[in-house]
Specification:
Blueprint lengths: L3 H8 L12 E7 L4 E9 L5 E9 L2 H14 L4 H5 L3 H7 L8 H22 L17 H6 L2
Antiparallel strand pairs: 1-2, 2-3
């Protein structure tokens, strides 16, 4: 049912915790399933993500997608992090069961929420970034059907 990579990131998650001086923090949830994901970003003066941590309350797939998302954005520029989609997270994990696709969407939205927070604090705009939704539940059917 779950790939080896999903199981590894669930059982041995990378980048768990908080960043005390994060300059971007994003929290999103899914009221339908109860998952809540918070991503912390430490972004340097060149807009490179130096460090990234997460805290997730949810199922194994939510933990695994959070872990993988942090791995995918660490060391990337803000613009490169914008390109990390839920599909990229799923592919990096060698797939997710259809009923868990919403977890990858939470990961994408949490990254965008943290980038939004960073942009607001810095008074900048990030190309392509829109204000994130706090609850992605109403959109998960659309995403799941597209896979």
């Amino acid at each position: 049912m779950y790939s080896e990579k999903v199981m590894d990131h669930f059982q041995n998650p990378k980048n768990v915790g908080e960043l005390e001086n994060a300059n971007g923090v994003g929290t999103v949830g899914n009221a339908k399933c109860g998952d809540i994901m918070r991503i912390y970003l430490d972004i340097d003066e060149n807009q490179v993500i130096r460090d990234c941590k997460f805290k997730t309350f949810g199922c194994g797939a939510a933990v695994a997608t959070s872990s993988m998302a942090t791995e995918l954005v660490k060391g990337k520029t803000v613009q490169e992090a914008m390109l990390v989609t839920n599909k990229a997270v799923m592919e990096a994990l060698d797939g997710l069961p259809p009923v868990k696709v919403h977890c990858s969407l939470l990961a994408e939205e949490a990254i965008h929420a943290a980038l939004w927070d960073y942009a607001q604090k810095e008074g900048i705009q990030i190309a392509g970034l829109q204000q994130p939704k706090a609850d992605i539940g109403e959109h998960e059917e659309d995403v799941a059907e597209s896979y």
